[in-house]
Amino acid sequence: MSNKLGIFLAGGAVGAVAALLCAPRTGQEARTMVAEKVNEAWGQAQSISADAGVNAQQVYQSAAARGQEVVSTVQAKGQEVAGQAAARVQEVASNLKPSFTQDNDELRDKIEAARQRIASQVAKNAEEAGQATEEAVEAVVEAVEPVAEEAAETPDQAKEPKAE
Protein backbone atom coordinates (compact mmCIF):
# COMPACT_ATOMS: atom_id res chain seq x y z
CA MET A 1 0.00 0.00 0.00
CA SER A 2 2.82 2.42 0.80
CA ASN A 3 4.29 1.68 -2.65
CA LYS A 4 1.06 2.88 -4.31
CA LEU A 5 1.05 6.00 -2.15
CA GLY A 6 4.65 6.76 -3.14
CA ILE A 7 3.85 6.33 -6.83
CA PHE A 8 0.78 8.53 -6.39
CA LEU A 9 2.82 11.28 -4.71
CA ALA A 10 5.58 11.07 -7.33
CA GLY A 11 2.99 11.33 -10.09
CA GLY A 12 1.47 14.31 -8.38
CA ALA A 13 4.85 16.01 -8.12
CA VAL A 14 5.60 15.38 -11.81
CA GLY A 15 2.17 16.70 -12.74
CA ALA A 16 2.72 19.80 -10.60
CA VAL A 17 6.05 20.52 -12.23
CA ALA A 18 4.57 20.04 -15.70
CA ALA A 19 1.67 22.32 -14.79
CA LEU A 20 4.03 25.02 -13.56
CA LEU A 21 6.04 24.91 -16.72
CA CYS A 22 3.01 25.01 -18.96
CA ALA A 23 0.83 27.31 -16.85
CA PRO A 24 -0.22 30.64 -18.25
CA ARG A 25 -0.26 32.17 -14.76
CA THR A 26 2.19 34.43 -13.06
CA GLY A 27 4.71 33.14 -10.57
CA GLN A 28 2.81 34.48 -7.57
CA GLU A 29 -0.41 32.84 -8.69
CA ALA A 30 1.37 29.59 -9.48
CA ARG A 31 3.09 29.51 -6.06
CA THR A 32 -0.20 30.22 -4.33
CA MET A 33 -1.91 27.50 -6.33
CA VAL A 34 0.96 25.05 -5.64
CA ALA A 35 0.87 25.89 -1.92
CA GLU A 36 -2.85 25.24 -1.83
CA LYS A 37 -2.45 21.95 -3.66
CA VAL A 38 0.42 20.90 -1.37
CA ASN A 39 -1.64 21.80 1.70
CA GLU A 40 -4.59 19.88 0.26
CA ALA A 41 -2.38 16.88 -0.48
CA TRP A 42 -0.85 17.16 3.01
CA GLY A 43 -4.33 17.15 4.56
CA GLN A 44 -5.30 14.14 2.46
CA ALA A 45 -2.10 12.36 3.54
CA GLN A 46 -2.86 13.09 7.20
CA SER A 47 -6.45 11.92 6.71
CA ILE A 48 -5.22 8.74 5.03
CA SER A 49 -2.69 8.10 7.82
CA ALA A 50 -5.39 8.69 10.48
CA ASP A 51 -7.70 6.34 8.59
CA ALA A 52 -4.85 3.82 8.36
CA GLY A 53 -4.38 4.02 12.14
CA VAL A 54 -8.11 3.51 12.69
CA ASN A 55 -8.15 0.67 10.15
CA ALA A 56 -5.11 -0.92 11.81
CA GLN A 57 -6.86 -0.67 15.19
CA GLN A 58 -9.99 -2.28 13.70
CA VAL A 59 -7.94 -5.06 12.11
CA TYR A 60 -6.18 -5.63 15.44
CA GLN A 61 -9.49 -5.78 17.33
CA SER A 62 -10.98 -8.09 14.71
CA ALA A 63 -7.93 -10.38 14.88
CA ALA A 64 -8.06 -10.37 18.70
CA ALA A 65 -11.77 -11.25 18.65
CA ARG A 66 -11.15 -14.02 16.13
CA GLY A 67 -8.25 -15.27 18.26
CA GLN A 68 -10.56 -15.44 21.29
CA GLU A 69 -13.11 -17.37 19.21
CA VAL A 70 -10.42 -19.82 18.11
CA VAL A 71 -9.19 -20.25 21.71
CA SER A 72 -12.76 -20.86 22.90
CA THR A 73 -13.35 -23.36 20.10
CA VAL A 74 -10.10 -25.18 20.85
CA GLN A 75 -10.94 -25.31 24.57
CA ALA A 76 -14.41 -26.65 23.82
CA LYS A 77 -12.97 -29.28 21.46
CA GLY A 78 -10.33 -30.16 24.06
CA GLN A 79 -13.00 -30.65 26.72
CA GLU A 80 -15.06 -32.71 24.28
CA VAL A 81 -12.08 -34.90 23.41
CA ALA A 82 -11.20 -35.27 27.09
CA GLY A 83 -14.79 -36.28 27.83
CA GLN A 84 -14.73 -38.82 25.01
CA ALA A 85 -11.41 -40.19 26.24
CA ALA A 86 -12.76 -40.50 29.79
CA ALA A 87 -15.85 -42.27 28.48
CA ARG A 88 -13.68 -44.65 26.44
CA VAL A 89 -11.48 -45.41 29.44
CA GLN A 90 -14.60 -46.08 31.52
CA GLU A 91 -15.94 -48.36 28.80
CA VAL A 92 -12.68 -50.30 28.58
CA ALA A 93 -12.54 -50.58 32.36
CA SER A 94 -16.10 -51.89 32.51
CA ASN A 95 -15.28 -54.41 29.76
CA LEU A 96 -12.24 -55.60 31.72
CA LYS A 97 -14.20 -56.26 34.92
CA PRO A 98 -16.20 -59.17 33.46
CA SER A 99 -13.00 -60.59 32.02
CA PHE A 100 -11.31 -60.44 35.42
CA THR A 101 -14.42 -61.88 37.05
CA GLN A 102 -14.54 -64.69 34.50
CA ASP A 103 -10.83 -65.42 35.00
CA ASN A 104 -11.33 -65.38 38.79
CA ASP A 105 -14.31 -67.72 38.50
CA GLU A 106 -12.31 -70.11 36.32
CA LEU A 107 -9.45 -70.03 38.81
CA ARG A 108 -11.83 -70.67 41.72
CA ASP A 109 -13.35 -73.61 39.81
CA LYS A 110 -9.89 -75.06 39.20
CA ILE A 111 -8.96 -74.61 42.87
CA GLU A 112 -12.21 -76.29 43.98
CA ALA A 113 -11.58 -79.20 41.57
CA ALA A 114 -8.06 -79.57 42.95
CA ARG A 115 -9.43 -79.56 46.52
CA GLN A 116 -11.90 -82.29 45.62
CA ARG A 117 -9.16 -84.37 43.99
CA ILE A 118 -6.97 -83.93 47.07
CA ALA A 119 -9.87 -84.81 49.40
CA SER A 120 -10.70 -87.93 47.39
CA GLN A 121 -7.01 -88.91 47.35
CA VAL A 122 -6.77 -88.39 51.13
CA ALA A 123 -9.93 -90.49 51.61
CA LYS A 124 -8.52 -93.19 49.33
CA ASN A 125 -5.19 -93.14 51.18
CA ALA A 126 -7.02 -93.31 54.54
CA GLU A 127 -9.10 -96.26 53.27
CA GLU A 128 -5.98 -98.03 52.02
CA ALA A 129 -4.23 -97.34 55.32
CA GLY A 130 -7.28 -98.66 57.19
CA GLN A 131 -7.27 -101.82 55.06
CA ALA A 132 -3.54 -102.24 55.58
CA THR A 133 -4.06 -101.82 59.31
CA GLU A 134 -6.88 -104.38 59.31
CA GLU A 135 -4.70 -106.82 57.36
CA ALA A 136 -1.85 -106.26 59.80
CA VAL A 137 -4.19 -106.74 62.76
CA GLU A 138 -5.56 -109.93 61.16
CA ALA A 139 -2.03 -111.19 60.58
CA VAL A 140 -1.13 -110.47 64.19
CA VAL A 141 -4.35 -112.11 65.37
CA GLU A 142 -3.57 -115.17 63.24
CA ALA A 143 -0.07 -115.28 64.63
CA VAL A 144 -1.23 -114.83 68.22
CA GLU A 145 -4.25 -117.19 68.05
CA PRO A 146 -2.25 -120.44 68.12
CA VAL A 147 -0.23 -119.15 71.01
CA ALA A 148 -3.38 -118.02 72.79
CA GLU A 149 -5.06 -121.39 72.18
CA GLU A 150 -2.02 -123.21 73.43
CA ALA A 151 -1.95 -120.97 76.47
CA ALA A 152 -5.64 -121.62 77.05
CA GLU A 153 -5.13 -125.41 76.87
CA THR A 154 -2.42 -125.43 79.40
CA PRO A 155 -3.35 -122.91 81.98
CA ASP A 156 -1.24 -124.55 84.61
CA GLN A 157 1.85 -124.44 82.52
CA ALA A 158 1.36 -120.86 81.74
CA LYS A 159 1.56 -120.04 85.44
CA GLU A 160 4.85 -121.82 85.94
CA PRO A 161 7.94 -120.22 84.64
CA LYS A 162 9.82 -122.16 82.02
CA ALA A 163 13.34 -123.16 82.66
CA GLU A 164 15.54 -122.76 79.79
Q: Would you kindly provide a brief summary of this structure?
A:
With 164 residues, this protein is mainly alpha-helical. It is built from three helices and no strands.
Mean pLDDT across every amino acid position: 81
Give the ordered list of helices and strands.
HHH
- Portion in strands: under 5%
Distance between the termini: 147 Å
Please, how many helices? 3
Tell me the number of strands.
0
pLDDT < 50 runs, ≥5 residues? none
Classify the secondary structure makeup into a structural class.
Answer: mainly alpha
Rg, nearest Å: 61 Å
Q: In percent, how helical is the residue content?
A: over 70%
How would you characterize the largest beta sheet?
Answer: none
The gross shape turns out to be rod-shaped
Write structural notes for this entry:
The chain is built from three helices and no strands. The chain is mostly helical. The chain starts with a helix and ends in a 5-residue tail after the last helix. The model has no long low-confidence stretch (mean pLDDT 81).
Provide the fold topology:
Elements: H1 2-22, H2 27-153, H3 155-159
Top keywords for this entry?
164 residues; mainly alpha; 3 helices; 93% helix; rod-shaped
